[in-house]
Amino acid sequence: MKIAVVGTGYVGLVTGSCLADVGMNVTCVDVNAQKIANLQKGVLPIYEPGLEDIVERNTKSGRLQFTTKLADAIKGAEAAFIAVGTPPGEDGSADLRYVLGVAREIGETMDGYLVVITKSTVPVGTAEKVRKELAAALQKRGSSLQFDVASNPEFLKEGAAIDDFMKPDRIVCGVESERARDVMARLYKPFTLNGHPVLFMDVPSAEMTKYAANAMLATKISFMNDIANLCELLGADVNQVRKGIGSDPRIGNRFIYPGIGYGGSCFPKDVKALVKTGVENGYQLRILQSVEDVNEAQKHVLFTKVKKHFGQLKGRHFAMWGLSFKPETNDMREAPSLVICEQLLAAGATVTAYDPVAVEESKHMIGDRIGYAKDAYAALAGADALLLVTEWREFRVPDWARIKKSLKQPVVFDGRNIYSGLELRAQGFAYHGIGVK
């Protein structure tokens, strides 16, 4: 099959590369000429484990190509994915200008029957808007070409996106014709040979499924953070509580780890967009509004602990381990580290941070207002305390004797509860976790 993927961000690049890796002829399109030039040289715009090898392999084989010309990618294609950004507007709604702009251009350039697939996370009803853009562009051309619009939301976890695409829990396809269903079935056949299910449904239900899934996961995180904060007040240990409720199969043990809030490109944006969709339709999503409120407040918890421990922060210096919103990615969108850095700086403190892959991204977002270390231990020099913000694997079992020697004071603020307060206190550290004694 010949496939076009419009957008070479996180979703588009993973989608196009993985489809090429199972033998399809894929052309990825982007308006950013520099990004396309870099991709043609094998320089990726994002960090994702395993993606660089797949791009290199399939580019060399000729199955994966990159261009700025949509018409070239669409010519002869059976399906075209729209995988451009849908940034949140000031009111929380998803900005669809890029999605609809691509739909319009596809209508202006398509040369045969095409299934146009919305891969971007879009509100319910977007497919109908895409359909209208395509129809208007074709009508303007005086063309009677046929097309279908389908919804195929992505469920990729940053840091594990390749496995998620190649071995999906489920593939959700919203279609409204047998012809579109046939194209989608052939498209995903390589990924269903091992029993991974394709769930066909109507388009609005597919669009809603993506938002509902992310909103549910965000709800679990905020719920546990709320419980963690109450545990501290009551003298309970949220880690024990988590094990107690996670052993119940109706609840499960995933996404119930307390911390300093969720971030990234999906959960914050999608929760806001779903709340906005409710408002637009005269319905208040009260639980999700609280989920967002709890999450924003949780990003301030670590700073509050630092302030409580030290009092005056002016002139203090802190080491920060982790900048990305989660491990195995350089994504810092809505990252708790951004909030914590801003609070420390505003209080007159200084920060030296280390992250295995997100330093360059941090330099774009924070700049030189904080310092950057070449490794985790170099970040500790002269610091009054260590703040663990992102739970990268290399931080899990550090050399505590070396840390104690490097810090001015043996103080640890564990924003992800990956350390044992009991063990650290026995070694002479002051330990502050989330929802623990």
Describe this structure in words.
Helix content is 45%, strand content 14%. With 437 residues, the protein is an alpha/beta fold. The chain has 3 domains: 2-201, NAD(P)-binding Rossmann-like Domain (Rossmann fold), CATH 3.40.50.720; 211-297, Orthogonal Bundle (N-(1-d-carboxylethyl)-l-norvaline Dehydrogenase, domain 2), CATH 1.10.1040.10; 299-432, Rossmann fold, CATH 3.40.50.720. It has a 6-stranded parallel sheet, sandwiched between helices. Strands 11-10-9-12-13-14 form a 6-stranded parallel sheet. It has a two-stranded parallel ribbon with strand order 7-8. Strand 5, helix 6 and strand 6 (147-151) form a beta-alpha-beta unit. Helix 11 (267-280) packs antiparallel against helix 12 (286-298). 44% of the residues are buried.
Number of helices: 17
Structural class: alpha/beta
Give the distance, in angstroms, between the N- and C-terminal Cα atoms.
Answer: 58 Å
**Low-pLDDT residue intervals, each spanning 5 or more residues:** none
Mean pLDDT: 95
Q: What's the CATH architecture name of the largest domain?
A: 3-Layer(aba) Sandwich
Strand order of the largest sheet: 3-2-1-4-5-6
